[in-house]
Design a protein that fits this description.
By secondary structure, the protein is an all-alpha fold. It has a domain at about 85-355. It contains 17 helices and three strands. The protein has helices spanning about 1-15, 25-55, 60-80, 85-90, 90-110, 130-145, 150-155, 155-175, 180-195, 200-220, 220-230, 245-255, 280-315, 320-345, 360-390, 390-395, 405-410, and strands at about 110-115, 115-120, 125. One of its GO terms (biological process) is regulation of cell shape. Pathway: Cell wall biogenesis; peptidoglycan biosynthesis.
Length: about 400
């Protein structure tokens, strides 16, 4: 008994004084993603009760579906984190072709909501091919930048090739129509090409052409023009084209500093359309106030910063595919958040983009969860590379992700 007590005391002493073994995955990234998902579940539950009651008679219908999507997303993350980056790079082109096929299918048999055919009904949930296309494009682009790294930096041909692929996706997206997803893809592509070292004049030409094209798309499409004019002055037509934005602004105004309290939103009571999807951030602002809004934005900023930091470490260590892909994900998360939040507070026209890991929707949540899983894998492989070197890190079993202490013993 005495020896056992001594062994126990020595174990506690070592635990208090000895630094922990290095962790081979980013625990902070895991907690950030989980925090955003749980926040999304709480806010979607609160925002969806009135519309769920009206449409189905079941107050928590959308909340239960979102909880199911959330559990599936955790399973997706657990599965994706086991897939080596070499597999994503190997299948990047087939994934891109699959996305193009899905974008064609949705034009033929897609489900139309509010005049836009963007969803393929699959029974349990509606698949949005635009979300799959985003992920596929960024994985393809990361692989392309690795294969044609010198050409992208040296010639205009290497710069224009991925833009041709983006043009094909843009045509199919605008046929739905879905200008918002195209803008996100365009901005992320620009960011990834910039990280790869493309020349400044090429960016100026591309951005000028894109702005001109987007301007023409807005001018010659009446509903887009109405969105822009209502964004500039929503109070000119508060019961027509400016209705969504004025209701959203009233939600933020009622929220003030501390909010009205969870579940106490007035705007979600059939005043604010799409309260649990596109404008969930407005409900969050009304119920949790400036403090809640700030906390959520800081969490998303932390997710973006983590992705960018992981990408920088990979690029510094020569792991170009993981580095470009992580940076691409950071641009994606950041800009999509900017558009969603900007639309809710009247900074940009309404685009119908979800708030990452928070808004209701199976497709968006599944794809964002896949991106988080890939980020965890990128970070894991970078840590293995830094710890063991390139040759040994490729031979290590994936179980090292779950138990870093085993790796310390192997070392």
């Amino acid at each position: 008994m005495l020896s056992q007590a001594k062994n126990g005391a020595s174990t506690v002493g070592e635990w208090l004084t000895k630094p922990p073994a290095p962790c081979l995955y980013d625990r902070q990234l895991v907690w950030i993603a989980l925090s955003l998902m749980i926040t999304g579940l709480v806010i979607v539950t609160s925002a969806s009760v009135p519309v769920a009651t009206r449409l189905t008679g079941i107050p928590f219908y959308f909340a239960l579906r979102h909880a199911f999507f959330l559990v599936c997303s955790l399973v997706i993350i657990a599965g994706v984190v086991q897939v080596p980056l070499s597999r994503w790079k190997q299948f990047s082109v087939p994934m891109l072709f699959l996305s193009i096929v899905l974008l064609i299918i949705v034009l033929l048999i897609g489900r139309s909501v509010n005049g836009a055919a963007r969803w393929i009904p699959l029974g349990v949930f509606n698949l949005q091919p635009a979300e799959v296309a985003k992920l596929s494009l960024f994985i393809f682009l990361a692989g392309y930048l690795v294969r044609q790294y010198s050409q992208v930096r040296a010639s205009f041909i290497g710069f224009i090739k991925p833009l041709a692929v983006l043009g094909i996706l843009a045509f199919l997206l605008l046929m739905q129509p879905d200008l918002g997803s195209f803008v996100v893809m365009f901005v992320t592509t620009v960011g990834m090409l910039f990280i790869a070292g493309a020349k400044l004049w090429q960016f100026l030409v591309m951005i000028s052409g894109a702005l001109l094209g987007i301007g023409l798309l807005i001018v010659f499409e009446p509903y887009r023009l109405r969105r822009v004019t209502s964004f500039l002055d929503p109070w000119e037509d508060p019961f027509g084209s400016g209705y969504q934005l004025t209701q959203s602004l009233m939600a933020f105004g009622r929220g003030e500093l501390m909010g009205q309290g969870l579940g106490n939103s007035i705007q979600k009571l059939e005043y604010l359309p799409e309260a649990h999807t596109d404008f969930v951030f407005a409900v969050l602002g009304e119920e949790l106030g400036l403090i809640g809004v700030t906390v959520v934005l800081l969490l998303i900023f932390a997710l973006v910063f983590k992705a960018l930091f992981i990408g920088r470490k990979c690029l510094q260590s020569g792991q170009l595919f993981g580095g470009f892909l992580a940076c691409g994900f950071s641009f994606w998360f950041a800009f999509q958040t900017l558009v969603n939040v900007g639309a809710a507070i009247g900074m940009v026209p309404t685009k119908g983009l979800t708030l990452p890991l928070i808004s209701y929707g199976g497709s968006s949540l599944f794809i964002m969860a896949t991106a988080v899983g890939i980020l965890l894998r990128i970070d894991h492989e970078q840590r293995l590379f830094a710890k063991y070197g390139p040759a040994e890190s490729e031979e290590l079993d994936d179980s090292s992700l779950n138990d870093s202490n085993n790796n310390d013993e192997q070392e």
